[in-house]
Design goal:
five-stranded parallel sheet; Ribose 5-phosphate Isomerase B, Chain: A
Length: 145
């Protein structure tokens, strides 16, 4: 699977480790930055990932200190369903019921093993469709293009 990834300075190290983990699992990871731990603005990178995921109808992962900021920015874009995830159940449900296409996590709130586990679960979980498809259609085209 091709995954687009981005973060801010607070999650740079975690992004680097998560990217390696995903590549070891056989995924192709496109890293949109940043490429150092120097201070950056998370909206810039959340925007890059959201636009790429929307255009390619793919999936992405965004990290920041809490995960809150990147999820708020990403969800402003049409076709994006960014889910802030902290538990295995949230990882499953965000895919099964909401067809989330961007996984958001907080590097200051989750340890690396948990982030790896959540990402793996999220990527392996399929959208159930059915009754959920109608609900997704109600908001799927909302937001900035």
């Amino acid at each position: 699977m091709k995954i687009t990834i981005g973060c801010d300075h607070a999650a740079y190290e975690e992004k680097t480790q998560l990217k390696s983990f995903l590549e070891e699992l056989g995924h192709e990871v496109e890293d949109l930055g940043p490429f150092s731990a120097d201070r950056v603005n998370y909206p810039d990178f959340a925007t890059k990932v959201a636009k790429k995921v929307s255009a390619q109808k793919g999936v992405g992962i965004l990290l920041c200190g809490s995960g809150i900021g990147v999820s708020m920015v990403a969800n402003r874009y049409a076709g994006i369903r960014a889910a802030l995830i902290r538990t295995e159940e949230e990882a499953k449900l965000s895919r099964q019921h909401n067809d989330a296409n961007i996984l958001c996590m907080g590097a200051r709130l989750l340890d690396m093993d948990t982030m790896k586990s959540l990402a793996k679960i999220w990527l392996e979980t399929e959208f159930e469709g059915g009754r959920h498809s109608e609900r997704i259609a109600l908001f799927d085209e909302l937001g900035e293009k």
